[in-house]
Amino acid sequence: MSLEKILSISGKPGLYQLKNQTRNGFLAESLLDGKKISVGARHNVSLLSEISIYTLTEEVPLREVFAMIAKKENGGEAIDHKVSKDELEEYFFNVMPDYDEERVYASDIKKVVQWYNLLNKIGITDFSEKEDNSNDDE
After folding, report:
1. Digit-coded pLDDT (tens) for 52-91
2. What distance in Å separates the CA atoms of residue 14 and residue 18, rounded to the nearest whole number?
3. Could you tell me if residue 132 is inside a domain?
4. Is residue 66 one of the residues assigned to a domain?
5. Within a 10 A sphere around the Cβ of 51, how many other Cβ atoms?
């Protein structure tokens, strides 16, 4: 499963896998408990493959940030997302020393770490770019 099919839905805990498109939106399955939900236009949805983290010089795709965390942790779990703001920021600084501290908030770091740990727990550890041979899907 690639990050192109993994979603964050505002107001909903955890991450979701895009399953099917429907007339009014799409069907998504929770990566936490496997429950399926219908997602309509009223939900704010973000594809993990479209999220980036600000650095002092550029925006780094989330997949690269996940890869940096995986490298730091030797493929294992990262720090708990429930630690203090200072611990989260220190951890993230060790992963990405040039992240923009003015535009990347502790709440963003918390989400990144939480998402990484969830993906790691369910066995999604390949954060390389998806090969562009998916033109048949369009």
Report:
1. 999 999 999 999 999 999 999 999 999 999 999 999 999 9
2. 13
3. no
4. yes
5. 18
